[in-house]
């Protein structure tokens, strides 16, 4: 059964989401802004690993379409099997980036994702965009 938007996100998923945010803040405090996306992606993976969170990098998923599955969708990070993270280094997060995470959530039937933009002075002041489906 598919969960609706009005249903709360499970506490276990929320807890993983909080830990993901903590890892992103740690990476940003150490590196600051200015590096290219692959550097943040790798540092983020190292930080997730150091706190014991399981994750998959560049996770391939298929998009369901009628009775077919269309391959080719790739998620930056899938954490704990329940939280999607899209790593960005952009001047500002656009609706396009959030819609991209929504498409990942739809394709995987998951509920919680984040766009993490490391190109900001303070990550918690605009670099973290929570996306819920």
Task: Itemize the secondary structure elements and their pairings.
Layout: H1 11-31, H2 37-50, E1 55-65, E2 68-79, E3 83-88, H3 95-108, E4 112-117, E5 128-132
Parallel strand pairs: 3-4
Antiparallel strand pairs: 1-2, 2-3, 4-5
Helix pairs in contact: 1-2
What does this 3D model show about the protein?
- There is one protein chain.
- With 133 residues, the chain is α+β, with helices and mostly antiparallel strands.
- The chain has one domain (11-132): Trna Endonuclease, Chain: A, domain 1 (3-Layer(aba) Sandwich).
- The chain is built from 3 helices and 5 strands; from the N terminus they run ααβββαββ.
- The chain has helices at residues 11-31, 37-50, 95-108; strands at residues 55-65, 68-79, 83-88, 112-117, 128-132.
- A 5-stranded mixed β-sheet has the order 1-2-3-4-5, sandwiched between helices.
- β1 (55-65) and β2 (68-79) form a beta hairpin.
- The longest helix is centred in the N-terminal third of the chain and has 21 residues, at 11-31.
- The radius of gyration is 14 Å and the shape is globular.
- The mean pLDDT is 93.
């Amino acid at each position: 059964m598919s969960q609706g938007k009005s249903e709360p996100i499970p506490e276990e998923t929320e807890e993983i989401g909080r830990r993901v945010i903590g890892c992103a803040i740690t990476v940003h405090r150490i590196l600051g802004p200015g590096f290219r996306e692959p550097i943040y992606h790798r540092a983020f993976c190292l930080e997730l690993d150091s706190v014991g969170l399981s994750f998959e990098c560049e996770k391939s998923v298929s998009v369901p379409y009628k009775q077919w599955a269309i391959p080719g969708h790739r998620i930056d990070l899938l954490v704990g099997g329940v939280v999607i993270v899209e790593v960005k280094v952009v001047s500002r997060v656009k609706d396009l980036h959030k819609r991209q995470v929504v498409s990942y959530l739809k394709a995987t039937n998951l509920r919680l994702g984040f766009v993490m933009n490391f190109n900001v002075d303070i990550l918690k002041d605009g670099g973290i965009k929570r996306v819920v489906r």
